Amino acid sequence: METNNNMTYQEAIKELESIVAEIEKEDIPVDDLLVKVKRSSELIRFCQTKLTQTEEEVEKALQGLEKSSEPS
CB–CB of 28/36 below 8 Å? Predict the structure, then answer.
């Protein structure tokens, strides 16, 4: 199960929250638990990547603002 490139950060977080709720019920079969843990790992990686990319883009935008506001 790969994360969809069209998936948003919010969708990934929502799916993660859903998985956590299922796991917290404590009556999940072991085989299903393994699948859920693997999927959670993929979603966490996806979210980390999104956050890193966003941080980099914000930093570039701020640097661009700083350069454009410097006197010529």
Answer: yes
Which residues have C-beta within 8 Å of that of residue 9, sequence separation ≥ 6?
Answer: 47, 50, 51
Residues 6+ away with beta carbon under 8 Å from 20: 40
Which tens digit of pLDDT belongs to each residue from 22-40? 989 888 899 999 999 999 9
pTM to 2 decimal places: 0.78
Please give the single-letter amino acid code of residue 8: T
C-alpha to C-alpha distance for 49 and 55, rounded to whole angstroms: 10
Buried-state track 39-56, b at ≥16 Cβ within 10 A, e below 16: beeebeebbeebeeeeee
